[in-house]
Amino acid sequence: KGFLAVDIGASGGKAFVGRYDGERLSIEEVLRFANEGCYGGKYRLLKNATGLWLVQELLREWKAKDQSLDYPSLVRMAGEARPFSGKIDVESPRFKRPASMERAILQECADSGSIPCTRGEIVRTALEGIAAMTELTRKELERLTGRIDGLHIVGGGVKNQLLCQLIADFTGLPVTAGPVEGTAIGNIIVQMLALGELRDPGESAELLKRSFEMLSYEPRNSLQAPRPLLLRGKELQEPFFESPVLTSLQFFRHKIVNSEFDEPCDSLDLYVVIAVAFEEIDVAARYFGIIEGIE
User: Fold this and answer.
1) Burial label, 169 (beta-carbon count in 10 A; 0-12, 13-18, 19+)
2) For residues 97-113, b (16+ Cβ closer than 10 Å) or e, as one string?
3) 248: confidence class by pLDDT, cuts 50, 70, 90
4) Strand 3-8 vs strand 150-154: parallel, antiparallel, or unpaired?
5) What is the pTM of this model?
6) pLDDT score, position 22
7) Which has the closest alpha carbon to 124: 94, 157, 80?
8) Under DSSP, is residue 4 helix (H, G, I), strand (E, B) or coil?
9) Mean pLDDT for the chain?
10) Fewest Cβ atoms closer than 10 Å to its Cβ: which of 94, 123, 132, 248?
11) pLDDT confidence tier of residue 29, bands split at 50, 70 and 90
């Protein structure tokens, strides 16, 4: 009940982010979600979102020029790349059927004023965009259905360990990943329930735990409680968080470029300004940690 389900397919390129609930919500409550009927008369509040399609298209485009590239090599490059080199909205119309996915991502990043420089940074930007989308969806679902304590990811995307870790980091929640073949296994489970081989969904969950390897990811840089952050004794009052956590980083970069702080900052890796005590501040602080230069 308290978990968000994320189905990230490795082949279809889509991500399905939703929650399995017992009650059907009104159309006003789920205007941005699908309200799907599920096994046992239950309902699944679901958002059909863009997933690994971005990375698949990058691989197809680059592999045409370099046959040595494969999916694991792209993930490895992303893991070694500089974080937050760009920012994208994975639902941007630019990404639906672009002639060049690389060019589309760079154009989207240019709108926020920060452009990735290497292939690894481009892939990482795509993965960070998927993680940011998951966090935004979590917040929307929590407002509708109540607190979410963790995430469970299934599908081929669970083999991308960097993405699973980024989702844990962006949401500030523990993630369980597996199994890979979510659709086929779910079909088998429902048939076993219908035949009486399993008594209820609770027993099926225990069977899955015994049958498949599940990996766990904990959010990095945990902070126990949200609190206002100060820069050299000055409390920031501007509401940075009308969009995801990354907005604050982009805003701070703009401030630095325009010399709007009293003292210059040596490195964005050391000085990151986050908004004051909105509900998102705990997520931001978990991701960035206690950063040198912020009191």
Assistant:
1) buried
2) ebeebbebbbebbeebe
3) very low
4) parallel
5) 0.72
6) 52
7) 80
8) strand
9) 76
10) 94
11) low
